[in-house]
Design goal:
single chain, about 250 residues, alpha/beta, TIM Barrel, about 15% strand, globular
């Protein structure tokens, strides 16, 4: 039993073979996939695909990468979607300070608003965070009771411990399969297993065995094997515990 905690199976790059991709995922042992929405114009697509496949679970959010196209009214629309569609989480939302041209103030405002919705509806948040881990920690600290995950975690080990203390799960994907990724590999080997999640972030962030290829959920076995090797654990233990973690976080 494996759960891919973060996969954009709704993206257009899967339009020509989505059913085959999902069949390969099933054959690999993937039982559930969390599918985050990234902008208002993607939520219907996410909903349609998750409705067609019972093992796909929808989240709806406003991704910081697209902050320039998000409108204030999108927050009102998001609130209605969450109220009416019963997603398993809110997101993908967060902060991206890696890209200098993105309006940081607007990012903070939209992220804060989505965290408030998560508290209101008692839903976990799916957080995107690049070069903004400290800011994310401070925002989470200001809102006790939040739960969620940071996907493709890239902060420090010390920050990882702070996030775990706040009840936040940390998710790792293809990056940890590259030997040059020393920091995330070190972190994934040391954090408590009961706060670890695994993901593909497909179609992006392919692992070292599929470098420069379109990523897909079935490639998650490479990530599992890498984590098992780094932690000196049986891969079955990694699968079982990360799946239990994901079920607990998303309550399905």
């Amino acid at each position: 039993m494996i759960i891919d905690s973060h996969c954009h199976i709704d993206f257009e790059s899967f339009d020509h073979d989505r059913d085959q991709v999902l069949q390969r995922a099933h054959n690999t042992g993937i039982e559930h996939i969390i599918v985050p929405g990234i902008s208002a114009d993607t939520w219907q697509r996410v909903k349609n695909i998750c409705t067609q496949h019972s093992k796909l679970h929808a989240c709806y959010g406003l991704h910081p990468y697209y902050i320039d196209q998000h409108k204030l009214n999108d927050l009102i629309t998001l609130n209605n979607w969450i109220k009416n569609e019963s997603p398993v989480g809110i997101g993908e939302c967060g902060l991206d300070f890696y890209l200098k041209n993105l309006d940081r103030k607007k990012q903070m405002d939209f992220f804060d608003a989505q965290l408030e919705m998560a508290l209101e509806y008692n839903l976990p948040v799916v957080i995107h965070c690049r070069k903004a881990t400290e800011q994310v920690i401070q925002l989470l600290k200001s809102k006790p009771g939040l739960r969620g995950m940071i996907h493709s975690y890239s902060g420090s080990y010390e920050q990882a411990l702070q996030l775990i203390d706040l009840g936040i799960y940390l998710s790792f994907g293809g990056a940890i399969t590259y030997e040059r990724a020393t920091r995330p590999r070190d972190i994934v080997s040391r954090i408590p297993l009961d706060y670890l999640l695994i993901e593909t972030d497909a179609p992006d962030q392919a692992d070292s065995q599929h470098h420069k290829q379109r990523n897909e959920p079935s490639y998650i076995k490479t990530i599992i094997d890498s984590i098992a090797n780094l932690r000196d654990e049986n891969p079955d233990i990694i699968c079982t515990q990360t799946s239990n973690n994901c079920r607990q976080l998303f309550s399905f």
